[in-house]
Amino acid sequence: MGDLGSLTLIIAFVVSAYTVVVSVLGYTKKRNDLILSSERGIYTTFILILISSFALTALLLKSEFQYQYIQEYSNRALPLFFKFAAFWAGQAGSLLLWLLILCTVSVAAVYQNRNRNRELMPIVTAVLSFVNMFFITVIIFAANPFNEMVVAAPETAAGFITYTAPDGRGLNPLLQHWAMVIHPPILFVGYSGFVVPFAFAIAALATGKLDITWIKTTRRWTLFTWMFLTSGILLGANWAYVELGWGGYWGWDPVENASLLPWLTGTAYLHSVIIQEKRGMFKIWNLILIIMTFSLCIFGTFLTRSGVISSVHSFAQSPIGSFFSFFLFVIMIIAGLLLLKRLTGLKSEHQLDSMLSRESSFLFNNLMFILAMFVIMFGTIFPLITELTSGTQSTLDPPFFNRMAIPIGLIILLLTGMGPLFAWRKTSVYSLKKNFLFPVGSSLIVGIVLFLLGIRDFYPLIAFVLSYFVFHTILQDYTKGVMARMKTSGGSFLKSFIDLTLKNSRRYGGYIVHAGVVFMFIGFTGNAFNIEKRAELLVGESFEVGEYIIIADKFNNGQEELYQFSEVYITAFRNGEEVTKGYPQRRYYFASQQTSTEVALHSTFKEDLYMVFEGYTDEDKAVVHILIKPLVMFIWLGGIIIVLGTVIALFPNTVSAGKQSLRRIKPEAADAAA
Amino acid sequence: MKNKKILFGSIVIVASIIYLGVTGFEQDMSYYITAEELLEKGDEVYDTRLRVAGQVVWGSIDRSKKPMTFNIDHNEKVVAVHYEGQSPVPDTFRDHAQVVLEGKFSNDRIFRADKIQAKCASKYESRLEEAKIK
Questions:
Q1: Per-residue model confidence (pLDDT) at position A612
Q2: What is the number of domains present in chain A?
Q3: What does the DSSP 8-state code read for residue A153?
Q4: Which residues in chain B (65-84) have CB-CB distances under 8 A to chain A?
């Protein structure tokens, strides 16, 4: 099985190299047979990688521990589900999964365009296959999951003996959690999907077909990918929250930042392409953004896997870092040269007419996303910069990131509310008053009420007021649309609501995404009100945290197949009433010889009660750490709403794009005339 | 004309956010050195807040003492550590773990740490090294 896996990888390498060459030849010589052959090359590569992946899955399910990868990441006693998930528990398997997803995406893109965009497709095929080829190379030469165990000579120094684990060392207990099982595949879709708009952008540059086609063709791809990247990041955050036991969901670790960087440029791109579609502006900028987004996906991998940055959860240093940096260099050079060559063909069709226009609000939106990207990138590679300048590494701590990200985030939130209220080109004073008076006025009232209720810190107060403001503007615009529709069609509110959303799914899907963003901001703001306390308890003892009284009812020890555990039975009371019981555990996993913390969590919209058992003291008291984390649920809820909104935005519009842009300008013009 | 206004607005926003970042920049920065570098620097870094990286020396963890003591090494240079922090040590902290300690180096050449981060080495690292047991 292992041989089959290795063999298919090598054949896939040859096929993808062939595909690159033939597609470029097909383009330059205008030979359809070659182009067709190159597209078949994409399909063939996919089938080969699929076989290779099946081979690895088979090795995992059959527990073939003579393979190093299986030995390290699986275990005989592991439940079937986790044996399967061990596929992407290590570096080599993750890369294979990433490659499999890349190949799938490539096949889908080629198949979707088999009769369309024929001028662009040869170059698109070449780019896709080039990226596939790169990943195959890395897997074959630097991270092959099909390597068999090399039995090292017994270690004689210091009295060590070689430990053999015939049943495998097992999946890291921290990764034995549903969110961590689906997190990597989802994140990889979120990275890989950007290869399609990237390939089309390169094809547009190479062929000189720089009109709106490449953007229109890849709009859904970008949205789809963005949805996965967003969910991937959030799942990672959720996993960190429930599994790591420190009570946070984001620590500004290089690994986390690496996934956020392409998300920021990708989000900027999603917004700025709208300007190009509607107004023919920002053409060069959009190309740069998508090239940047794809490059940042590669850069993130380089950063976290090369060992250049020390991080608590960075992956081991490995040779794949140099592969990725070389690949990044090649992408940047090719894209840069093509961009320079086509610069003159990318003149903007319009100029910005006014500061108070939809266009300029998009411009500021982009500015903030890019600023956020640079700030986070700077903070992340700061150890590298200081090492170059002073010889020692210095790191920037989370307070730096928070201090920078909070104001940027709040400005983005403000723009989320304002942008959609501005008209294209120029907003009249009349429509400004009409659209803003009510939301701004009621936001001020909300602000005053919150202030009186005791929320007096600057950032939390601003964050809540802005959240309200954005929510208000969304509701206002939405209900306006629904009411108008009810009048014309005579349908019920719900029917008009659904019709309207589907009729212009892009616009209203966007609004729903924005509503999700508001929820997330509310959740983030909850952080300002965290309470935590730690106590050492004997059975029957209690302590007070915030409004809660925590009692340790019982200590218990036990054993499961994979681990042994000790746990504390906790009852939490508030105002004399029982709120919940929790059973936080500490586990010791036999195969990996690791301890792990199992948090007990009681979630409500108001707050999460987060209970951690941190072990026994020398006097056999249980160390119990309780955190009260307000509004965290809003983050996860916001995430679900964002995904829902994106799905709606992916629906085909029932109104054609041309009509729609006319419609959007018209009502504002009517306002101005009135 | 309009473009100038927008440019001006952009510069103001970017500048004020960068200003936010620059103020207090020093506090957010901590030196990150290895156990070996710590011993080389010695006198220079007494009482400076540092992050020190190293590997826990096999069998050096003594949990019976208060504070808990252990040694870390990097390129065979060993630093003695007293852990004086409030929170319990992380799950991943054990013999041979890669750790990053936060704290200060004192005149008695003991590193007094108040925070321990242990790398989730297992996640993506070849653990053949760790497979050796005593």
A1: 94
A2: 2
A3: P
A4: none
pLDDT on residue A330: 95
**pLDDT tens for each residue of B86-112:** 777 777 788 888 888 888 888 888 999
User: Residue A76 is encoded by which pair of tokens?
Assistant: 């005989």
- Residue scoring higher pLDDT (A155 or A108): A108
- Is A668 within a domain? no
Cα→Cα distances B23→A403, A541, B14, B28, Å = 10, 46, 14, 10
- ipTM score: 0.77
Task: Tell me the per-residue pLDDT of B6-30, one tens digit each, with 9 for 90 and over.
Answer: 788 888 888 888 888 778 777 778 7
CB pairs under 8 A between A and B: 133
A34: domain range? 1-150
Q: Reduce the DSSP state of residue A74 to 3 states and report it.
A: coil
pLDDT at A334 over 60: yes
Residues A27-82: tens digit of each pLDDT = 999 999 999 999 999 999 999 999 999 999 999 998 888 888 888 888 888 888 88
A21 or A317, which is more confident: A21
Indicate the DSSP class of residue B42: G
Whether the CB-CB separation of A241 and A247 falls below 8 Å is answered with yes
Number of other CB atoms surrounding residue B66 within 10 Å? 10
Q: Is residue A67 part of a domain?
A: yes
Q: Answer yes or no: is A6 within a domain.
A: yes
What would the mean pLDDT of B60-73 be, rounded to a whole number? 86
Residue spans of the domains in chain B: they are 30-131
> What pLDDT is attached to residue A250?
94
Task: Identify the pLDDT of residue A431.
Answer: 83
| Residue A91 placed within a domain | yes
- SS (HEC) of A594-652: EEEEECEEEECCCEEEEEEEEEECCCCCEEEEEEEEECHHHHHHHHHHHHHHHHHHHCC
DSSP code per residue over A343-368 = GGGG--SS----SSSHHHHHHHHHHH
Please give the torsion angle defined by the CA atoms of residues A124, A127, A133 and A134, in that order, rounded to the nearest 10 degrees.
-150
What's the rounded Cα separation, in Å, for the pair A633 and B48?
40
Best A155, A172, A422 member to test B by mutation, with max B CBs in 10 Å, is: A172
Name the token pair of A93: 């398997």
Cβ pair A597:B91 closer than 8 A: yes
Give the best residue of B73, B122, B129 to mutate against chain A (max A CB count within 10 A).
Answer: B122
Could you tell me if B120 lies within 8 Å of chain A, comparing CB atoms? yes
Cβ distance A313 to B123 less than 8 Å, yes or no, reads: yes
Residues of B in contact with A591 (CB under 8 A): none
Q: Which fold has domain B30-131?
A: OB fold (Dihydrolipoamide Acetyltransferase, E2P) (2.40.50)
The total number of residues shown for chain A amounts to 674
Q: A596: distance to nearest CA of chain B, Å? A: 6
Evaluate if residue A671 carries a pLDDT over 50. no
A48 alpha-carbon distance from chain centroid: 28
